[in-house]
Amino acid sequence: MEEQKDPRGELHPQEDTGEESGEYSFLQETIKRDRRGERKGFLRMAGLGLIFGVFACFSFSAMKPAMDSIFQEDPQKVTIPPEEETKEEEEPEQPPAEETVQQPLDADSYRQMQQSLTTIGVKANRSVVEIAGVSAQQDWTEESKDYKNSVSGLIVADNGRELLILGKSSVAKEAKEIKVVFNNGQVCPAVLKKSDGNLGFAVYAVSRTDIPDSMWAQIDTAVLGSSNAVSKGDVAIVLGKPFGYAGAMGFGSIASGKNMLDLADGQCRLINTDIAGSKNGSGFIVNLKGEFIALIDQSAAEEGSTELIIGYGITDVKDAIECLSNGQGVPYVGIWGVDVTEEIEEQGIPKGLYVKNVDADSPAMAAGIQNGDVITSLDDVEITSYGTYHVTLMEKAVGSEIVVRGQRQGADGYVDIDFTVTVGSKEL
């Protein structure tokens, strides 16, 4: 080992490494270079991974709607349970009740009643929407809440793929697009699923993928009540567009629930209220349980009557709603009839369904059924009333053939006749 002096004159030992020092320097340089290469490779891989991740996110977002439509499950069948028949039971005799003093009503009582009714209406309104038809000339981007071509809609079912909404079919005529406006103002695209020209209503579908997640906590599927249980004087709550504008709510009472409206292949109970409404109003009537009991349709009112809100009883259209919700046509033959009562039988007319009229270009006319015929059976099911005929027909599939048996008056009285009818559907 040699000693060397530094500039200050101090001695420092210096190690003579020779070849060993050169080899060590080479190894040290090599290791440093390898570490720099590793860092560069790591950064390159991280950058490529980041680019791939961003690209994958954008690709997934763009492809999600298409993939959802391809891999989503088949829609569930919508079933509306039939109503249980209510039997009148004899009430046991009870001892006379003690007389109670009726407290006088004041402003606070009225206010509490209004608040109670409003609470029921607000909860039921979670099932009510507005269905708007957009024409080619209309600019949907305009900030406006007054859609002229719109009707009230009711959320009647969720089949797992679509939210199904019931509303008048007129809004879909000549519409370029159909939009559904929910109660919080959220707008979603919709399509016409199926319509019924006989009743004038249709079911529209909104894809679940088009509904924001935040919306599900603000909407409900409607609870359909029984219009057969409605009595005069019952409280009525009207929702939708009964006064000509969306999001309305009104209160009143049932004026009548006994009148019947004749339709092709059946009848429908009319629910009359004492609430004044718009001539072209649409919407729904709700009872104190928050159940929907009628579909408002002012066209059902007789000419010359005051513009009081009137609707189709929900009980008589549940079967049609079920068909439309499943994308099926409502069975249609085109017969307008009347029950042959005992009094009519005494005039020599056979028991069954008397045909008053037959729709032009209907399956009944094509089969040869005429005014004055009496239908006695449909596919071996005895027909004793218009109601029996309607229920039996609604169990048939559109496009199927049925055998209608009846009697027709001839020169020597009534004779047996048979018809083979192909069940059709009357759509928009």
Strand content: 25-35%
Characterize the biggest β-sheet. Answer: 6 strands, antiparallel, barrel
- The string of secondary-structure elements, in order, is EEHHEEEEEEEEEEEEEHEEHEHEEHEEE
Note the overall shape. Answer: globular
User: What oligomeric state best describes the polypeptide chains here?
Assistant: single chain
Helix content: 10-25%
Biggest sheet: strands side by side, in what order? Answer: 3-4-5-8-7-6
The stretches of 5 or more residues where confidence is low (pLDDT under 50) are: 7-24, 87-91
- The tally of beta strands, per DSSP, is 23
What Rg is obtained from the alpha carbons, in whole angstroms? 37 Å
Mean pLDDT figure: 84
Structural class: alpha+beta
C-alpha termini separation? 110 Å
> Count the helices. How many?
6
If you had to describe this structure to a student in words, what would you say it looks like?
By secondary structure, this protein is of the alpha+beta class. 23% of the residues lie in helices and 33% in strands. It has 6 helices and 23 strands. The chain has a 6-stranded antiparallel β-barrel. Strands 9-10-12-15-14-13 form a 6-stranded antiparallel β-barrel. Strands 17, 18, 19, 20, 21 and 22 form a 6-stranded antiparallel β-sheet that branches. A hairpin with a 2-residue loop joins strand 11 (260-263) and strand 12 (266-276).
Task: Furnish the topology, listing elements before pairings.
Layout: E1 2-5, E2 11-14, H1 19-71, H2 107-124, E3 128-134, E4 150-158, E5 162-168, E6 177-181, E7 187-196, E8 201-207, E9 235-241, E10 248-256, E11 260-263, E12 266-276, E13 282-286, E14 292-297, E15 308-313, H3 318-325, E16 331-332, E17 335-339, H4 342-345, E18 353-358, H5 363-367, E19 374-378, E20 381-382, H6 386-394, E21 401-410, E22 413-422, E23 424-425
Antiparallel strand pairs: 1-2, 3-4, 3-6, 4-5, 5-8, 6-7, 7-8, 9-10, 9-13, 10-12, 11-12, 12-15, 13-14, 14-15, 16-23, 17-18, 18-19, 19-20, 19-21, 21-22
